[in-house]
Design goal:
Layout lengths: L3 E4 L5 E4 L2 E3 L4 H13 L3 E2 H8 L5 H19 L4 E3 L3 E4 L5 E3 H10 L3 H7 L14 H31 L3 H14 L4 H13 L3 H19 L5 H9 L10 E5 L2 E8 L5 E5 L13 H11 L3 E5 L16 H14 L5 E6 L2 H11 L4 E7 L17 H13 L7 H4 L7 H14 L2 H13 L13 E6 L7 H10 L4 E5 L12 H11 L11
Helix pairs in contact: 1-3, 2-3, 4-5, 4-6, 5-6, 6-7, 6-8, 7-8, 8-9, 12-13, 14-17
């Protein structure tokens, strides 16, 4: 049997037995696409509500029946199996969809093939303005695919430069910069590729174009790292090399920087990108300060940043496995573990599972449970959490919720542009939704009494993202833990008052968790 072929990257096209199929009704096309992507049965009520939200149940079902008839007429045969309660593509029908093939190529690490398949944004130019749920579904799918393409291109640029194929690096970096012209990181990839190709003039032209865009569109100056790269012509300027380690069949991106008497592993919150974090001056300064205390090890958790995108929700147990894999890959026998925000629960799990691998545990702005309970009243209820998540995802692509995470820099145009770019590069609305749901359901309260590592808990008094009571709760239930309340409202550790955190890490490195150390 010949397959049904769906072109979904770009304006949708349909073919059956090699014959182009014209679906005049956009809702008929939308139904075929939705069923193909679902990969299994879809309830009739779900399909009817998705495509005719304004109609009552009886009218929506009638319109669905007429649409199914028009699909059969257009294809010349029955391609949809319509049961009394559900719909699906006909069993045994082979479906070839470029968007699905793109996902599979990314999963398999076939990045050249993936980049070749991506000929346009998902359903570009196709819209159903009167179907908000369908439009939202398309938005999430489109953003997820764009995010995977950015990740694939970033990896390809690095791999081509490392492999001596500067021409290939320029090709992929040019495409990367075109995808997001306001991303300074993308421009820097292209500058590095030109320098690797020995074309300094092209690198300088790209630098000028980058600076002009930043000035005209955002009103900001270029990052010093960009200027340093142009001055030095060093492909590795200002940022450590990204490496990968496989765990559970998933590739985890990590970096190491600095040296010293101890290793310091930073476990990020819900969003991270080991390369984009270096673009923010305050964050880069903080990372540099920590790397002068010991060897700093950074990584992106599974499903995030430059690590592999995964369908499964990243649990605290999975985060603990990621920490262990990264430490082993970096040759770290023992480390001070620094868990920021949502990274804290995974650190607590690791501390219980691998106490011999820790010299100390530092928790910043963290929490034991993602949602409210009768004995944990200072978190959002599940319903409140879901509303906050909807607000965050609705603002994705811009500096979403920066007023919550970093009120002290919320009006800074450069900080806003950086945060928006980090969100887009690190994940997509659909992909991060699973991570946020895993956080909402996380609960490590039973583990707190089992932590034996020296522990320091720090929390800003006015933290708007995670209330200070969550930090007090952790410290009160981890044996011997010391609690430090820091002034300010920012949730991000690299803005506002930072000295307490840096001194706390320094104390752990020196084995003085119970004392107030002084930085050299």
């Amino acid at each position: 049997m010949e397959p049904i072929q769906l072109r979904l990257l770009g304006f949708p096209e349909f073919r059956l037995n090699g014959r182009r199929v014209e679906l005049a009704l956009r809702k008929a096309a939308a139904l075929v696409i939705y069923l193909a992507e679902a990969g299994g049965p879809v309830a009739r009520e779900v399909a009817a509500t998705l495509l005719w939200p304004e109609a009552d149940a009886q009218a929506a079902r009638a319109r669905l029946r007429r649409t199914l008839y028009k699909i059969r007429i257009a294809f010349g045969e029955e391609i949809i199996s319509a049961g009394a309660a559900s719909l699906s593509l006909r069993p045994g029908l082979l479906v070839e969809a470029d968007a699905i093939a793109f996902d599979h190529a990314c999963d398999a690490g076939l990045l050249d093939e993936a980049a070749g398949l991506y000929t346009g944004d998902y359903l570009a130019g196709f819209a159903l303005p009167d179907c908000p749920e369908f439009e939202e579904w398309v938005f999430f799918r489109r953003e997820a695919l764009r995010s995977r393409l950015v990740q694939a291109l970033e990896r390809q640029v690095e791999a081509r430069i490392a492999g001596g194929d500067a021409g290939g690096a320029v090709m992929h970096a040019t495409r990367l910069a075109a995808l997001d012209p306001l991303s300074e990181s993308a421009h820097r990839h292209l500058i590095r590729a030109h320098l690797a190709a020995g074309d300094r003039a092209a690198a300088e032209r790209q630098g000028e174009a980058c600076m002009r865009l930043l000035r005209d569109e955002l009103g900001v100056a270029p990052d010093p790292a960009t200027l340093a790269l142009l001055r030095a012509g060093d492909a590795e300027a200002e940022m450590p090399r990204t490496r990968y380690v496989a765990v559970d069949g998933i590739h985890i991106a990590y970096q190491t920087m600095g040296s010293g008497p101890a290793d310091i592993v930073l476990v990020p919150g819900f969003i991270s990108h080991v390369e984009r974090i270096w673009e923010d001056r305050s964050c880069r300064a903080w990372l540099g300060a920590v790397s002068r205390l010991g060897r700093l090890i950074l990584f992106d958790r599974r499903g995030m940043g430059l690590s592999d995108r995964v369908g499964a929700r990243p649990t605290v147990e999975a985060t603990a496995r990621d920490i262990l894999a990264v430490m082993d890959a970096a040759g770290s026998r023992k480390a001070v573990l620094v868990g920021a925000s949502e990274g804290g629960p995974g650190c607590i799990r690791f501390a219980v599972d691998h106490p011999d691998r820790l010299t100390g545990l530092v928790l910043w702005g963290s929490l034991a449970k993602g949602s409210r309970a009768p004995d944990y009243p200072f978190a959002l209820t599940s319903a409140q959490y879901d509303l906050w998540q909807q607000r965050l995802l609705a603002g994705w692509g811009g500096p979403a919720e920066i007023e919550t995470f970093a009120p002290s820099v919320a009006s800074d145009r450069q900080a806003r542009a950086w945060w928006a770019g980090l969100l887009r590069a690190a994940s997509s609305p659909g992909a991060v939704a699973g991570l946020l749901q895993a956080l909402r359901d996380a609960d490590v309260r039973p583990l707190l009494s089992k932590v034996r590592a020296p522990t320091l808990v720090l929390h800003r008094r006015g933290d708007r993202a995670v209330r200070v009571e969550a930090g007090r709760y952790l410290a009160a239930r981890i044996a011997g833990a010391r609690f430090v309340e820091v002034e300010g409202e920012d949730h991000w550790f690299w803005v506002g008052e930072q000295r307490a955190l840096l001194e706390g890490i320094a104390g752990m490195v020196r084995g003085k968790a119970g004392h107030q150390p002084t930085l050299a």
